[in-house]
Amino acid sequence: MVKFGVNQSVERKEDFRLITGSGEYTDDITLDGQLYGYMLRSPVAHAKILSIDVDDARAAPGVVDIILGTELEADKANQLPCMIPLKNRDGSDRSDPGHAVLATDKVRYAGDNIAYIVAESLAQAKDAAELIMFDFDELDVVVDTKTANEDGQPLVHDSVANNVAFDWAQGDEKNINDVMANAAHVTEIDLINNRVVVNSMEPRGLIADWDTTEEKMTVRMGTQGGWVLRSLLANSILHVPEEKVRVITPDVGGAFGMKLFFYSECAATVWASRKLGRPIKWMGERSDAFLSDTQGRDHVTHAKLAFDADQKITGMMVETNANLGAYFSTFGPLIPTMAAVKVMPGVYDIPDFYYHCTGVFTNTVPVDAYRGAGRPEAIYIIERLMDKAAREFGIGQDEIRRKNFIPVAAIPYKTATGCVYDSGEFERIMDRALETSGWSDFSARKAKSAENGKRRGIGMCYFIEATAGNPTENATIRFEDENRVTLAVGTQSSGQGHSTAYAQIVAERLGVPFENIDVIQGDTDKIKTGGGTGGSRSLTTQGPAIHAASDEVINKGKELAGHFLETAAVDIEFSAEEGEFAVAGTDRKIGILELAHRARGLGQLPENLAEGLNAEASFTVEAFTYPNGCHIAEVEIDELTGATDVVRYVIVDDFGTIVNPALVRNQVIGGVGQGIGQALTEHTVYSDDGQLLTGSFMDYGMPRADHVPVDLLYETIEVPCTMNPMGVKGCGEAGCIAAPPAVINGIIDALQDIGVRHIDMPATPQKVWNAIQMAS
Question: What 3-state DSSP class applies to 369?
Answer without folding.
Answer: coil
